[in-house]
Structure to design on (113 residues):
């Protein structure tokens, strides 16, 4: 679980330092990641009070179920979220519109770290 923890700590640090990349998006994303390095994580976007954390702290608006390795590839820009969804590697529950915005949000933070 160490590598996933590090990824979410990086996302948390980036979003805390500059929440502007998620401007206009108020949502709780939950990531249910399995296979090998597994866990439940949340990305809470709420302006200046945005954060990323391990565990289920708040009720999610959009839940993404995928393998931990696929999540790492998505964060690194090696896996397109839409293609992962269409191929069945990513399952989404909840607000699909929020899911579509997520790749751009994660990508913008990856560029700054």
């Amino acid at each position: 679980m160490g590598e996933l923890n590090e990824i979410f700590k990086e996302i948390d640090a980036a979003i805390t330092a500059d929440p502007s990349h998620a401007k206009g998006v108020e949502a709780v994303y939950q990531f249910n990641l399995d296979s090998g390095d597994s866990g439940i994580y949340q990305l809470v976007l709420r302006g200046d009070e945005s954060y990323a954390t391990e565990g289920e702290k708040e009720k999610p608006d959009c839940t993404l179920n995928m393998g931990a390795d696929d999540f790492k590839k998505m964060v690194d820009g090696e896996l397109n979220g839409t293609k992962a969804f269409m191929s069945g590697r990513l399952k989404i529950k909840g607000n699909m519109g929020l899911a579509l915005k997520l790749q751009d949000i994660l990508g913008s933070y990856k560029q700054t770290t």
Observations:
- The chain has one domain: 2-112.
